[in-house]
Design a protein that fits this description.
Blueprint lengths: L1 H4 L2 H10 L5 H14 L3 H8 L2 H10 L3 H15 L3 H9 L2 H8 L5 H14 L3 H9 L2 H11 L6 H18 L2 H7 L1 H11 L4 H14 L3 H9 L2 H16 L2 H15 L8 H12 L5 H9 L4 H14 L3 H9 L3 H6 L7 H16 L3 H5 L1 H13 L17
């Protein structure tokens, strides 16, 4: 490292490589310079010498190369609060943030992605909040309805807030920036498949922890209607969106054993019930389809609710469901067998399974679990003299 830092010409050539025609070479240059910036002498050299002028020179080659320099600066900023300070003082980071609200829609899309990466660290989020960037992104969401080009950058804005909510606090983010959750609901109930997919993914992330579930619960009938819509998409949409809906339903419906209060169980049961007139039958039908991703997605939903007593009662009251669980012939591939095994494991790990299912069924589940996901029953054959 010392040898590299003493060779300013080498470092200059690495910076110039960012502006080259070969994207693979540019990526390696960005990665190498990012590693050099992990040391304080490297940081000081990159941002406190003529090398900073070289970086600015490279930025002027084209929009694409400018984004590459932004990518480098965001990577360096994410290392530590000190490295972020160097990047901010260089004015390259503030320039990136200004472009976020510029007129060029495609530039805005790229900037949103980079700002989302910067928000992956605590010091990055604090910096963005201090610079008013989070408020700006919220305003962009509010103004999206009147912008005919918002479809390009809106998914990125929603993903930004979804990540922010999980890393910070779902309740604080949703209360402080109400436009975010409102827009996610609107997107879910809309007709554009791309937007629906992003909204469904975001709700899945938001509803994956207890605080997020409580935020959704507070919206009352609005979320019930949205969740019903997700159930409709899980049954009728194109395959990719159906899989994303199944994943979101799994995340939202799951309750850790330690959080199963009467109120939360009642909430989970009411949410599950609004997905369809006969939700258990709906997911059974999806699980019986010959598409592995749908088959596994439906099994994942059953696994998510398997430790909740109301769901266990639904399972045992559903004719043929127990036979379906222990039938190995309906799971044709490895992923399906693994998904079924996770369901069985979740059932035998739950405290109420033996009581709800009864001893005979519980022992069958225990036997399935003991035999493992790939068990094949041996078939003995008798050799007959003279037979071919």
């Amino acid at each position: 490292m010392t040898e590299i830092l003493n060779n300013l010409e080498l470092l200059k050539q690495m910076i110039l490589c960012i502006g080259g025609d070969q994207i693979a070479v540019a990526k390696e240059a960005i990665a190498s310079l990012s590693r050099i910036a992990r040391s304080l002498p490297g940081l000081q050299l990159l941002f406190g010498s003529n090398l900073l002028a070289d970086l600015r020179l490279v930025m002027g080659i084209s929009d694409v190369v400018r984004y590459r320099v932004y990518e480098l600066v965001v990577e360096i900023s994410s290392i530590s609060a000190e490295s972020l300070s160097f990047c901010a003082n260089s004015d390259i980071l503030p320039q990136l943030l200004e472009e976020l609200t510029g007129d060029d829609i495609l530039v805005r899309v790229t900037c949103v992605e980079m700002v989302t990466a910067l928000a992956g660290t605590l010091h990055g989020r604090q910096y963005l909040a201090q610079q008013g960037v989070i408020d700006k992104i919220s305003n962009l969401i509010v103004g999206a309805d009147s912008d005919p080009f918002s479809g390009f950058y809106l998914p990125g804005l929603v993903k930004f807030f979804g990540n922010l909510a999980i890393m910070e606090s779902p309740q604080q983010i949703c209360e402080h920036y109400p436009a975010f959750l409102q827009k996610v609901f609107d997107m879910t109930e809309g007709h554009e498949t791309t937007m629906i997919g992003v909204a469904v993914d975001t709700l899945g992330v938001l509803g994956s922890n207890l605080e997020g579930k409580q935020v959704l619960q507070k919206t009352g009938s609005r979320f019930i209607n949205v969740f019903r819509r997700i159930g409709h998409h899980a049954k009728n949409a194109p395959t990719e969106l159906r899989v994303r809906c199944l994943d979101a339903i799994s995340s939202i419906a799951f309750l850790p054993p330690d959080n199963q209060t009467d109120d939360l169980l009642a909430m989970s049961e009411s949410w599950f019930g609004c997905l369809s007139n006969q939700p258990m039958e709906m997911f059974r039908t999806i699980a019986s389809q010959p598409f592995p991703e749908l088959h596994c997605g439906a099994l994942k939903v059953f696994t998510a609710i398997a430790n909740q007593p109301w769901a266990q009662r639904m399972m045992i009251d559903n004719p043929g469901f127990m036979e379906y669980i222990v039938d190995r012939t309906v799971d044709p591939d490895k992923d399906s067998k693994d998904a079924k095994y996770e369901l069985v494991k979740a059932l035998i790990s739950a405290k109420t399974t033996a009581e709800v299912f009864g001893n005979q069924h519980y022992l069958r589940l225990r036997a399935y679990h003991r035999e493992g996901p790939y068990y094949v029953k041996a078939v003995s054959t008798v050799a007959v003299e003279g037979a071919e």
